[in-house]
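Hi U.,

Before I forget, here's the chain from the pilot set. I'm dumping it here mostly so it's searchable later in email.
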Amino acid sequence: MKLFAIFGDPVEHSRSPLMHNSVFKNLNYPACYTRVHLKDGSKLRETFFTLGLSGANITIPHKEAAYKACDEVRGFANNVFVVNTIVNENGRLIGYNTDADGFIFAIDEFKKKFNKIPTALVIGAGGTGKALAERLTLDNIDVTVLNRSDKSAEFFKQLDIKYFTWNDFKITHKFDMVVNTTSAGLKDEELPAPSETIEEVLNNTSFVFDAIYGKLTPFLKLAKKKNIPYKDGADMLLGQGVLANELFTNKELKSADIKTFMSKSFEL
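Structure:
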């Protein structure tokens, strides 16, 4: 029996155990998936091996710590130094990023409406913000990042992505899409930036996305009030979950079957 887990702080809200266990149970795969509340990201590697895990997902705020915990990082995660999926290969931790492609899966129907190079504002410059901003640029989307402070400015500057803090941000054009990658609204009623900034942003956008799932955040409530099309992070969670499960099971299970039973878990 293989054991998998999700690390985060907080982590009790995570649907990942329901999703992956639904796959394992229905496809008779000998594995189980649980939650691990980890406050100190530097303890991730040690905790992983102490628990005897075969793999793990990582959520806020440990995705950058997860990158440092790995022996090897593969694929897109190397672009952004952010890992959300780890697989144990013979005692070596191999890191991946499935968040970015999960996000592209989630906004697929919206992307089909573009008939020009779209513009996007990404709020937040943590692990998720870095992954999504970089992935959007690969799809020729003009990205701007808005963050509380300038501590991540150099990372985005190297990618030629426009970066602003709350203090120096000004609306100069309408955004096709605004994406919240912060934890604001997850455990509280906070907005991801000062209210006057968010008001102005939402008055100048066509679509709103929040990486948080399972609740209508204050950010999405405001978008709904303004009759702006919006979406939460459920489909992003599903998309990245399918990719992570393929890595966990070494592609022994069919992608279509994984998606079917993960989708059913959202009915629980």
